[in-house]
Specification:
4-stranded antiparallel beta sheet; DUF1697 domain-containing protein; Alpha-Beta Plaits; 2 domains; globular; DUF1697
């Protein structure tokens, strides 16, 4: 089955990983038709293992390579469901690079958005569906100036997660096609 693996925090804050190395690591695990997307830790491949098995295999291989990070895996049906569930379709058309989907390993805790409102009063729109959290930053300036990450930390948002902008999410759907 074709899958996308999304690595958390790659090529940010000194945590570097060449995409050629990521591709070689995935191929070393026996994955085939391996390709990377952007330099932010996205790899697409065919594998027989389940999503959780792939996450564990990649995390262990990356740690052997010197990078301890979390990995979230999604297949085409899951990515299509993420796209279909987007509550901010208007924003995705207007400013797709400022609409983020945060992929979590487990379902997003239903009380966290309400808890965020207690510690953060920014204008961003947030909505959770299953394991994904959608965030509309309302444009480039707002995203740059946002204090949302600090609020998420105070509200104890799950740490095993990684975000991708809407443009990248839709590219996953294309690359996951058989």
């Amino acid at each position: 089955m074709r899958r996308a693996a999304l690595l958390r925090g790659v090529n940010l804050g000194g945590r570097t990983l060449l995409m050629t190395d990521l591709k070689a690591i995935a191929e070393g695990l026996g994955f085939v038709r391996v390709e990377t997307l952007l330099a932010s830790g996205n790899v697409i491949f065919d594998a027989k293992q389940s999503g959780p098995e792939i996450e564990a295999l990649l995390e262990a291989a990356l740690e052997r390579h010197g990078l301890k990070t979390d990995v979230m895996v999604r297949d085409l049906a899951e990515i299509r469901a993420v796209i279909a569930a987007n509550p901010f379709a208007d924003a995705a058309l207007d400013h797709p690079s400022h609409v983020l989907v945060t992929f979590h390993r487990d379902p997003f805790p239903s009380d966290r958005i309400a808890r965020l409102a207690e510690v953060h009063d920014g204008p961003e729109r947030l909505h959770a569906v299953g394991r994904e959290l959608y965030t509309d930053f309302l444009g480039k300036q707002q995203m740059r100036d946002s204090k949302l990450l600090q609020g998420m930390s105070k509200a104890k948002f799950p740490k095993v997660a990684t975000a991708r902008n809407w443009n990248t999410v839709t590219k996953f759907a294309t690359l996951l096609e058989p």
